[in-house]
Amino acid sequence: MKLHAEYRKLKLVKISIIVPAFNEEKLLGESLARMQAAAGVFGRRGWPVELLVCDNNSTDRTAEIARAAGAQVVFEPVNQIARARNRGAAAATGDWLIFVDADSHPSAELFDDVAGQIASGDCLAGGATVRLDDPHWLAQGVTAFWNLLSRGFRLLAGSFIFCEASTFRELGGFSGELFAGEELELSQRLKRLAAKNGKRMVILHRHPLTTSARKIHLYSFREHSRLMVRAAFNRRILASREACHLWYDGRR
Q: How many domains does the chain have?
């Protein structure tokens, strides 16, 4: 009887896919199309899906492209990734939230793995390993190292995070004090809550998220390494928009 009640409950799960977007007119259309196609796996389970794009004060056609794709568009005037994700989550009506970056392409197989975790009943949140859409040797090396850290320490990549909506709101969402690294800070809070509640936080790895390698080409090795070294010795710089310019200077 208990299993039957749980099955009926799971059939009513609603999924909210949330996409923060700042001046993403070049990549957003294709990304949304890929997300919508992949989200068909939820529909086959009878789970309704909503797609929300948070226009993070864009100056291009980001909002127009999102609406044309059938997404619900919300607006966040403060240009900050954490705030954009939180604004999208505030407008979401789903039981589970999936945050996907505007330059990323989740596959149907990855979404199906997410659905399996949700259906298990003992997963509180999770993420996925990533692969870049460019064979650049340095990018591939850094990505491989990140994936090891992610799986070993259960660290969430900001490009793909799924979380029970009630849990996300209980924790207060992403930190509004950080302009980068907010997903790592959230990872720590989620792990503590999962341990307290006897649940799991997982990093899916069978079907990695495909995401853009554009930052490798838009910014020099010196710019990347300088930020990483500074952040390693002084995490307070992650609370500075200027220090985290790789995400906010508008290069696309």
A: 1
Q: How many angstroms separate the CA atoms of 151 and 52, rounded?
A: 28
List the CATH number of the domain containing 64. Answer: 3.90.550.10
96-100, strands of its sheet edge to edge: 72-75, 49-55, 15-21, 96-100, 160-164, 123-132, 200-211, 104-105
Residue 246 is assigned to a structural domain of this protein:
no
| Tokens linked to 22 | 């700042």
Burial class (CB in 10 A: 0-12, 13-18, 19+), 103: buried
Structure token pair of residue 52:
């929300």
Is residue 55 one of the residues assigned to a domain? Answer: yes
* Average pLDDT of every residue of the chain: 92
Please write the tens of the pLDDT for every residue from 109-122: 999 999 999 999 99
- Distance, CA of 250 to CA of 252 (rounded, Å): 6
Give per-residue pLDDT as tens, 204-243. Answer: 999 999 999 888 878 777 887 787 778 777 778 889 888 8
Answer yes or no: is 80 within a domain.
Answer: yes
H or E element that contains 75: strand 72-75
Task: Say what the alpha-carbon torsion angle 87, 161, 215, 129 is, to the nearest 10 degrees.
Answer: 180
